[in-house]
Write a structure and sequence with these properties.
This protein is an alpha/beta fold and 392 residues long. The chain has 2 domains: 2-147 and 310-391, P-loop containing nucleotide triphosphate hydrolases (Rossmann fold, 3-Layer(aba) Sandwich); 154-304. Helix content is 56%, strand content 8%. The protein has 16 helices and 7 strands. It has helices spanning 13-22, 24-30, 35-49, 67-80, 92-108, 122-125, 137-147, 154-186, 196-221, 224-227, 229-249, 256-263, 278-304, 312-322, 357-364, 388-391, and strands at residues 2-3, 55-60, 85-89, 116-118, 325-329, 346-349, 371-376. A 7-stranded mixed beta sheet has the order 1-2-7-6-3-5-4, sandwiched between helices. Helix 3 (35-49) crosses helix 4 (67-80). It starts with a strand and ends with a helix.
């Protein structure tokens, strides 16, 4: 680890270091690193924490010494500390490797991938078949447009499921009346009417699929600073509650008539154990639990006043503005110069020895960057120039 000259100041690094070690996810990650790797992370964080001067840190190591692993852990820690970071590399392959490493740590730690953003050329990055697609800008724009839409979004899905669980008995009654009218017109006496249980199962599956899709999009594509930690945890719990209710709804010993009678009420009838079997009662209780979780989640998300986007450009601006870590190649970072967003605090360049000096300047000139970390090995292959004009 080599670092630039430091200007004396009054920054207290000890509080940052203590907070870092109090984080159980970092303790778990640091146990997989050796002393040199942990020291590299500690020294880089100490320089970044100082606000009195700009710093440049160099993280060096020959091939196979775990530079990418160390960098992935360090970026995860910085994300948890709410820094705004731009991560660059000379090639699409290199930037995908770093992004994949951090994404793996984020998912293992059960954190939101919404704080990470990767952008660049879709064909060159080749993200279509990889899990890294979850943080790719073009895919995120498409998902957020759907999730935050007035017609297909999370709010409509929650309201639809709440209505079904509250009014499924009355909806079934209306359904039967409509079916009877059709049968009279068709004079089809062999047609068998759908039971209440089948009616509920079909409608629940359809709405649950849409709702769980929205929950997944909120947890994956909305940054934690927007969705907030308690909402993220509650969304995960709501998804588990829906799964549990769905499993119980398909129990073989459920009786349609019993369930219809129970679901005609929002409260359990007195002495219900005398008239209904235990499975039907348990399904009723799980339904009440689902309703409570759904209504709580709707109220909580309503208070966030999540934006409803009408065009892709506004979604892109939202993503750049709120992401904690942005990944791209050094040459692609020129796009950030034309985007109005919160300043980036830190620039990290992986495989830095392979970059041409002119390429490094592109991200370094972004406004707000006061610290840089360069990772690489000067013995690795230098930058390659394939232009015949440049060679001669």
């Amino acid at each position: 680890m080599y670092d630039g000259k430091q200007v004396k100041g009054s920054c207290d690094y000890s509080s940052l270091y203590d907070a870092m070690w109090d984080d159980c996810s970092y303790r778990r990650l640091s146990s997989d690193l050796n002393e040199s790797q942990n020291n590299a992370i500690s020294n880089c964080l100490s320089g970044i924490h100082c606000s009195h001067n700009a710093t440049v840190k160099l993280v060096w190591g020959p091939p196979g010494t775990g530079k990418t692993k160390t960098l992935g852990t360090m970026l995860f820690v910085l994300m948890k500390m709410k820094y705004r970071i731009l991560v660059c590399a000379p090639t699409n392959v290199a930037i995908k490797e770093v992004a994949s490493r951090v994404l793996h740590i984020v998912r293992e730690s059960q954190c939101s991938a919404g704080d990470m953003l990767l952008f660049g050329n879709n064909d060159r990055l080749d993200v279509g078949s990889e899990e890294i697609e979850d943080i790719f800008l073009d895919n995120r724009v498409k998902k957020l447009r759907k999730c935050l839409s007035s017609f297909t979004g999370w709010r409509n899905c929650l309201i639809s499921m709440i209505h079904l669980l509250k009014s499924c008995a009355s909806d079934y009654k209306m359904f039967i009346e409509n079916e009877m009218l059709k049968l009279r017109k068709l004079e089809n006496k062999s047609y068998k009417l759908k039971s209440f249980l089948d009616f509920l199962r079909v409608r629940f599956l359809r709405r649950a699929e849409q709702l769980k899709d929205c929950i997944s999009m909120l947890c994956t594509h909305v940054p934690m600073c927007i969705i907030l930690k308690h909402n993220y945890r509650n969304l995960v719990c709501l998804n588990a509650t829906l799964e549990s209710f769905q499993k119980m709804l398909f129990e073989e010993n459920l009786t349609s008539d019993e369930l219809k009678t129970l679901f005609s009420n929002l409260e359990m009838p007195v002495n219900s154990s005398l008239y209904f079997n235990g499975t039907a009662e348990y399904v009723f209780k799980k339904r009440k639990e689902c309703l409570s979780a759904l209504e709580t989640m709707k109220d909580s998300l309503d208070r966030l006043e999540l934006k409803r986007f009408t065009d892709d450009e506004s979604v892109r601006d939202f993503c750049f503005e709120n992401s904690s870590i942005i990944f791209c190649t050094a040459s692609s970072s020129f796009r950030l110069h034309n985007i109005s967003m919160k300043p980036i605090n830190l620039l990290v360049i992986d495989e830095a020895a392979q970059l041409k000096e002119c390429e490094s300047i592109v991200p370094l000139l972004l406004p707000g960057i006061s610290h840089a970390i360069l990772v690489g090995d000067e013995c690795q292959l230098p930058s390659m120039v394939r232009s015949n004009v440049s060679i001669y």
